[in-house]
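Per-record layout

source: Povalibacter uvarum
name: Deoxyribose-phosphate aldolase
length: 318
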Amino acid sequence: MTTIDRNPGTVLTPEWFECIQVNLSAAERRAATLGTRRTVKKEYQAAWLVKAVTCIDLTTLAGDDTPGRVHRLAMKARRPIRDDIVAALGLSDSPPTVGAVCVYPTMVAPAVKALAGSGIPVASVATGFPAGLTPLPQRLAEIRYAVGEGAAEIDIVISRAHVLTQNWQALYDEVKSMREACGEAHLKAILATGDLKTLRNVYKASMVAMQAGADFIKTSTGKEDVNATLPVGLTMLRALRDYGEFTGHRIGFKPAGGLRTAKDALTWLSLMKEELGRPWLEPELFRIGASSMLGDIERQLEHYVTGRYASISHHAMA
């Protein structure tokens, strides 16, 4: 996997976001057109679905996770699509793998061991995931622990209260300290957008996280009542694009929570392509947080190569 330059961040610059206005109805109308204005079919759809596989952060964040479960997840990450389907697609010389495997900090070491030599990075949630309400020193220690275990990416959660009270300095300082704790690991800032109430808050939190040095901005933990939605994604991408125009730095994006089907993958890829262009269709700048989506993608690819739909149980589960 190629990498891009880290986001060095900026000083906190409220002028970039304080006066922003977001038209909710316009954002909803724009989002509603994504699945209706154009579709991809046949070999083009297959190509887009393979691309989606390479951008998946294959995830397990369950209370009953074990090293054995993580090992199975890692094996699926190495071979996310069955060998016969890969061969039929003409990809045997360069079979696809997922973008990363995402686990809790205590499961990082088993994941790193299982993925050794694959080139697939291990991502770890941290900082009191999912609520993020443990004391800051403990959250920073959790980051350092995960990095020490071998995590190459850290998915942190922000304190939503800083956004709801508009305390941008506190949010900036928090994310900046987390970025420093990551060392060489990439930082993905989870905004938990379902808790932020308004799209204006989503835009502002996105901008502050990027100014503090986040390499990715991510919609959700997957544990909120409302997770990744297209209007929220659109708002975050506009913030990401604006930040790029201000600084010249490319920042990644990760929707997560509630994404389950191949159709969901195609819709989010379309949003990325239309808003940011072809460079953001690579795992260095786009990830999909998912656990069950891969099974449906594999099922759709099998239909493309055989003309038949298999039962979802026909495909190996991670």
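summary: The longest strand covers residues 153-157. Residues 259 and 303 are 21 Å apart (CA to CA).
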